[in-house]
Amino acid sequence: MNFWQRTILGWKWRISRVSARFARFIGCFALTTAILFLAAPVIAQRVQVSPASPRLGDTISVIIQDGSKQGAKPTVRMDDKSYPMFPINTSTYRAFLPTTPLDRPGIRQIQVQVDGQVENLSVNVGDRTFPTQRIRIATTSSGGLKPTQHELDRVAAFRQLVTPEKYWNGPFIPPSRARRSTGYGVRRYYNGVFAKDYYHRGLDFAGPQGSPVVAPAPGRVALVGKLSEGFRLHGNTVGIDHGQGVTSVFLHLSRINVQEGDMVQAGQVIGAIGSTGASTGPHLHWGLYVNGKSIDPAPWLAQTME
């Protein structure tokens, strides 16, 4: 074998060594990538956000499938605030994220953490036009615009309830058969002064004095407040805890038929329409709160919120 033959053979041997090493590298890289892909499925494929096009005042539902694979409860954050998640079956969790008329419309980042992985989901919250009203409230023996500290403290504590049990099942029902007189989110001038950080936190039903008010969904009566006990703004009040951060409050009642601690069912009479507190005439104010914030009750009447 001459010099050139030996040189060519040497180069062939070196090239085969490099090719083998490169092939092993590519194979390991591909295998590692496949393992990582299989071990870490995309979180977004396991998350359902509804409604698809939320607007200000809507309740955003976040449902996570198979969130309990490693025994750790998934977490959800929006606007730098964490929201509680609750199991709705053995492998699915749900959280409610409230929005209000005082929020800014636009893109919201919902941060979801599942099994140690974190992913940001973008949700566009649409704007919404709310009408403006001008009303006058007189200070009388039946109440007025200046609440007592006692009623503010009681109502604030009630709105923050997050009971682990879920008492409702299916859509809510209207708490009164009377016509709706004022919708959710209305902005107001009270006695000529614009309430800057205020919006109408619920639905009003204009019915006859003494007409029945019923529970819109099952729950536990967690608040009973009376005008005689200092509820000057809210008037005679009943609050129902529906569980898992969802609460209802009923204002201006003429009569209260329940006591704190009572368990009530949907359609059960809890009181009667009146005009106690800051009121211009007989009506029911029904407010629905999710994780402490007043949301629009209307969608809860139209569909089931799991």
UniProtKB/TrEMBL annotation:
Its EC number is 3.4.24.-. It is an enzyme of class 3 (hydrolase). Keywords: Hydrolase. Pfam families: Peptidase_M23. Residues 199-297 form the M23ase beta-sheet core domain. GO terms for molecular function: hydrolase activity. PANTHER family: MUREIN HYDROLASE ACTIVATOR ENVC (PTHR21666:SF270), PEPTIDASE-RELATED (PTHR21666). This is M23 family metallopeptidase. The lineage of its organism: Bacteria, Bacillati, Cyanobacteriota, Cyanophyceae, Oscillatoriophycideae.
